[in-house]
Design brief:
The protein has 165 residues and is an alpha+beta fold. Helix content is 26%, strand content 28%. It has four helices and eight strands. A hairpin with a 2-residue loop joins strand 6 and strand 7.
């Protein structure tokens, strides 16, 4: 099954943390990273005053169930020094499950599709770069259709990752 992950960092070597997270995800048995968007610098949304984020979206293929993928991403965040003291606060790395095939899941601790991805240009712009034809399993809209209605100011392409198609 194809999952889409949103990645973000705004502490230290932001692109370095994104790269490390992608490398760690790719080393997990049963997970293959199949595509990664460009890197986008974005203004912070909500929370305390903080530095701009670097964001990207990755596609992975895995047979692992959603809760297992979530636990794996939380372990990777923790190993990269993620601190959860302040909601929407600065972080070394944040990894969110945006979508997982045609799964619609609404459980305490895990909601798929991500409940706020449609409102976030820093997610939609990189998502549309790698999967414009992907359909939201709840609405049937494509990511390309959704991104057309988003305010893209504050989202700037800054680089790319090599080694991913």
């Amino acid at each position: 099954m194809r999952y889409y992950l949103g990645l973000g960092s705004n502490i230290g070597d932001r692109e370095g943390y994104l790269r490390q997270a992608l490398e760690m995800i790719g080393k997990v048995e049963g997970i293959a990273v199949t595509a990664v968007s460009s890197v986008y610098e974005t203004d912070p949304v909500g929370g305390p005053e903080q530095r701009e984020y670097c964001n990207a979206v990755a596609a992975i293929e895995t047979g692992l169930p959603p809760w297992h993928v979530l636990e794996t991403m939380l372990r990777i965040e923790q190993s990269l020094g993620r601190n959860r003291d302040t909601r929407w606060g600065p972080r070394t790395i944040d990894i969110d499950i945006l979508m997982a095939g045609d799964i619609v899941l609404k459980e305490e601790g895990l909601v798929i599709p991500h409940p706020r991805y449609r409102e976030r240009a820093f997610v939609l712009i990189p998502f549309a770069e790698i999967a414009p034809a992907e359909r939201d399993p709840e609405t049937g809209e494509t990511i390309g259709e959704i991104v057309r209605g988003i305010d893209a100011s504050g989202v700037r392409k800054t680089g790319t990752f090599t080694g991913y198609s």
